[in-house]
Amino acid sequence: MKLLTRALLLPFLIPFSLFGQAKSNNTLPEKSINYGIDKTYEPYEFINKDGKADGFNVEIIKAIGEELNWNIEIYPDDWKVIRKKLEDTNELDVAAYFKSAAREDSILFSRPISLVYYSIFTRSDKEPVEDLFSLSGKKVAIQEATIVEEYFDQLGFLDLRDLQTYSSESDAINAVVRGEADCAITSFMTTNYKMEVENIKNIQSSSDPVFITEYCFVVNKEDSAILDSLNWGLRLVKASGEYDQLFQKWLTPKKGWWSQNQELVIMILAILFLLSVTALVYIYSLRKLVQKKSQVIKKEIQTRAETEWELLESENLRKKMEVFTSVMLVETDLEHNITQAPKLFYSTLGFNEEDILGVNIHQLINAKSVSKDKEIKSVLMNKEFPYLDAEYEFKTSSNIPVWMESSTSLLYDEKKRIKGFKQFLRDITPLKQANINLKDLNAELANFMYKTSHDVRGL
Length: 459
Known about the structure:
Layout: H1 2-9, H2 16-19, E1 31-38, E2 40-41, E3 45-47, E4 53-54, H3 56-68, E5 70-77, H4 79-87, E6 95-98, E7 107-123, E8 139-143, H5 147-154, E9 162-166, H6 169-178, E10 183-187, H7 188-197, E11 203-205, E12 211-220, H8 224-240, H9 242-250, H10 257-281, H11 286-325, E13 328-333, E14 338-340, H12 343-348, H13 353-356, H14 367-381, E15 388-395, E16 401-412, E17 418-427, H15 429-458
Parallel strand pairs: 1-5, 8-9, 8-10
Antiparallel strand pairs: 2-3, 3-4, 6-12, 7-10, 7-11, 7-12, 13-14, 13-17, 15-16, 16-17
């Protein structure tokens, strides 16, 4: 599948030397890249029990390196040190950051490699903290030099008892376990990974994420050529299907045998115990036997309901991640009529395949996006750029907006003549809606603070 994908993409690429884009590791000179990782950020990047760098980010950058003929040298350290070596001393070429506007003055962000959810974690014997407003008067533990610290700089109105910073998220969680902090704000996936590996039972998380952010590769401001190559390499890895395999390996929730069967084993042992006790006391008290049987049935119903809920939550998360990582290739002719489209494209817009083929793609997007699409394709026709990226607002058959990220390039026939356009599309509606909701929340919060301030002045 990987070789077939490369064969389809190869005719549409231009020389790497002009645009910094990779075609094939057979035609590119070998290049050494220094990649820095946070040594304790499981499952994204960490040092495993054999002393080697491992995790989702590590395998993704190695896969990109194979596509671009890069020799990847990995340097693990504390996160604060990694940031300094990339941003200040230029000892590192690439690292993985969470995207934020505050950092764009000193670094460049690649296309996102995943979404990360942050939650508030407390001890299970304490009252859970459900939102940021409930942090007032509490000791809060976070990892230093991260996007969470930047958020707290922006949310200066929160009356925290103490904001405690640690060199890693693991240290922040351990502070909660020891009782040194009331709660910690850490990424949901890494903390649950730690709880599973270390069998931590006395930690709980809030029900909803408090932060949602994009996780990207980053380079220094002067290394835009490396960034272009990273983006293209990431696109090749996704198109080959290798990205999906690594995502399933590292970021899809998994349970060990004991976690999957723990409740069943306990239930069986409990039933055997009850049956043994029942055999001894049955002749003495039929009433007690009925009561015990009722308790067993009640416990089975409760266990089944909890298991079904966990399965439903896991399935919902899987579907969200599949939508996030899905890439659609749509081809159009020079009049913008659709000549080829995958099932995911027309099912996302609520159409059948026969309703899409031959239709002008401009009928499926709003007026502002139509103008943008025409301008992009006009520039591509002049062959000034190999491809151009944009964000379009599509319309479903029910006239519901769907936002998609598009990367457009020219489409050639066998004689190297331009016959149309091809567009890599990715549905970013969940992220767009999350950003809109976050803006609305910030607006409501600002309005609340204004009203509160006004009322206090009136007193």
